[in-house]
Amino acid sequence: MAEHGLTPTPSLPDGSTGDSQFDGLTIALNDTTHMASLACRKGQEKAFAAAAKELFGSALPGPSGLVEGKEFSLFWTGPDQWFVETRLDKYEDIAAILKATFADTASITEQSGAWACFELSGSGALKLLERLCMVDIEKMPTGSAVRTVMEHLGVFVICREAGSRYTILGARSSTSSLQHALVTAAASAL
After folding, report:
1. What are the E-state strand segments in 12-163?
2. What is the pLDDT of residues 78-132, one digit of tens each?
3. pLDDT tens for residues 6-40?
4. pTM of this structure
5. Domain boundary at 97, 112, 127, which?
6. Rounded distance, CA 50 to CA 45, Å?
7. Contact call for residues 66 and 73 (beta carbons, < 8 A)
8. For residues 108 and 18, what is the distance between their CA atoms, to the nearest angstrom?
9. d(C-alpha 144, C-alpha 138), whole Å
10. In this structure, what CATH number is given to the domain that contains residue 95?
11. Comparing C-alpha atoms, which of 155, 99, 106, 104 is closest to residue 128?
12. Which class for 99: exposed (0-12), middle (13-18), buried (19 or more C-beta within 10 A)?
């Protein structure tokens, strides 16, 4: 088999890490998360649920839900649809793993190169997110995920730990714009 020696392209055009520190807040670009979309095919609900239980060890999350496991995290994106996350050092080809388990019960699409992932941590995360999105962040519980808009950009806001740890997923093509929005809002809020 031919060796290609491909190198991943950084999310930010300048190749920077995208990390920023503020009083009570860290914003970090996470390029180590791999994702795939998972959708149940019509008429395959029972076999799909059994495959999900086998691979993930738990039921799939419902609307606005998030399930975090040792190997995979999943969050609901729509009726019978989820995003599955894992770390690059765990599974480089997440779509192949999902396809091997779900076979013809699901439609699976690799999403890793399509999304930029920013990790927000610290007590200042609430103030930042209150300025940027139309989500009642204070009421968002640990283990939840919602789709919203930040600065005209469609994003997912994932609450990893209420009040202090959130993940923002935005289109990779808008990574610079999303980083600018987060940093600018943090500079004015904190």
Report:
1. 20-22, 25-29, 33-40, 66-68, 73-78, 81-87, 106-110, 115-121, 144-150, 153-161
2. 999 999 999 877 777 889 999 999 999 999 999 988 999 999 999 999 999 999 9
3. 555 666 766 666 789 999 999 999 988 889 999 99
4. 0.89
5. 112
6. 9
7. yes
8. 30
9. 12
10. 3.30.70.1520
11. 155
12. middle
CA distance 126 to 121: 10
User: Amino acid identity of 40?
Assistant: C
- Where among 91, 112, 133 does a domain terminate? 112
Amino acid identity of 134? M
Is 121 in the same domain as 83? no
CA 184 to CA 88: how far, in whole Å?
Answer: 29
DSSP E strands in 41-189: the ranges are 66-68, 73-78, 81-87, 106-110, 115-121, 144-150, 153-161, 165-171
Task: Give the domain range for residue 42.
Answer: 33-112
Does residue 136 sit in the same domain as residue 151?
Answer: yes
CA–CA separation, 103 and 55 (whole Å): 12
